[in-house]
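Q: I'm teaching a short session on how sequence maps to structure, and I want students to see two examples side by side rather than one. Could you give me a first protein with its sequence written out and its structure tokens following it? Keep the formatting plain so it prints cleanly on a handout.
A: Of course. Example one:
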Amino acid sequence: MMARAVTCALLLAASSLAAQDAREIVRRAVDRDQQNRAEARDYTYLQRQEVRELDRAGQVKSRRIETWDITLLEGSPYRRLVGRNDQPLSPEEKKGEDERLRLNNEQRRRETNEQRARRLAEWQRRLDRQHDAVKEVPDAFEFTRLADEQLSGRPVYRVDGTPKPGFKPKAQFAAILPKVKMRMWIDKADYEGAHVEMEVLDTISFGGFVLRLSKGSRMVID
């Protein structure tokens, strides 16, 4: 009887430790994300966005890919469409995007100090709103650490997250967290979020039809 009790206690302790380890891994990844957002201000980069629509059988019904060039324009980011479906834009589309870039550049250069300060402050508020939701992730889910893997030749942690009962979101965008479950691949060396898969458990709607995701929708972030 004593041996059985000790065994159960050890199993419970090991289970608790594993859960704490998983939460700590996610917490460190969230901290790293915050550092990345600050450092991103010094970089230009390409952003590739792929949207797939599936039929009831799970087969791809439509697929849309857009590639954006993100640059700093007079102190805040500017997104310029540079490709569709992994192909360069047509000459007409490119001309239109180049003209929009030119007009935005001129407009920002003509800003008064007050207008510039207001634009930069609004950009910072958007960043803060987004990250406020990310900061709630460690408290929004119950985590399970899965077997470690290799991803693109690098060792990664794998962590499953299911919504924690009773969690009350504070940030506006954190309202989606109780409605998704996720699996995260987190780089062991620097705690970068290498890959995230999310499944929508209940319909998500923001701003009417500005953002609407139906139950069963899946999102992938690399």
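Q: Perfect. Now a second example for contrast.
A: Example two:
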Amino acid sequence: MDTETKTFIPPRRRGLLFNLGIIFLLTLASLALLFVATGTPLGPGFLLYLLGALFIAAPIPVLAYRTINLMRGEYRLGRSGIELRWGFREEDIPMEQIEYVELAEDLLFPLELPRWRWPGVLVGINQQEKLGRVEFLAAERDTLVMIGTGKRVFIISPEKPKLFVRTYRQMIELGSLVPMQATSSFPRFLLIEIWRVPINRALLIVSMVLSLALFVLVGWSVPTLSEVSLGFNAQGNPLPPVSSAQLFLLPSLNLVLVLAGYALSLLFIRQKRDHPIVTLLWGSSVLMSALFLVAVLFILSAS
């Protein structure tokens, strides 16, 4: 971009307060349930508190990611074009590809906003009858600006929308000095890439169901047992019995191995969405979880 670039940022205050506030409350609630679980005897109650803590903590990574996106969000306007930055989403639009830059409030028809939105997060892509394909990279609905191109319309939210539009018109009058190359970069997430391939999606769901079933089975059975044997010696005789609480080692080990397969998938999903190694890894996770489940059933039947 040329030296006359002007940088505009989205309104961040309300979004940061909301997202960080929710993250704090969810973290507090999750830690409280974990604290209660530590004082609860092993059994259904312990399992309920543990799963409750995990369930409450599940949205935290999403909120943290959206907060990072908001902090990294900015719009750069220069004589060569417009650069949009929203987290790891990057879009460079040469000036010759821009058809118009207008305030969204000047529309004569209602703008369809993304379905999932909250303070600081107005992000997503939808298809609108009069505008076509629309992508939102915005924080608040009160400062929206439309950037029209031949392929799609970008909706952004600079803190000073009128100044942004006025600056764009000034840049047009000055003309471009250095041609800008059009680029478009989307963040790629493993779970999303896996979800788009039917067989990998099925394997992921089955693996999660089996892993959860394994934890539930162990958590439900441990209070009824005092001791269990976790294997056999070289002569085929059962190993000395241990505390039934050690049965939790099996679902925990299974979870660690499933997560290891997830991490290893990163090496191959970047090369190709439907890479056969990814399918092999998730198929192995399903088989491994099933074998752990059979092993626990065998141990319980022998106890």
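Q: What should students look for in example two?
A: Point them to this: Helices lie at 13-38, 44-57, 60-72, 161-174, 190-195, 198-221, 249-269, 276-302. Also worth mentioning: The first strand starts at residue 6 and ends at 8.
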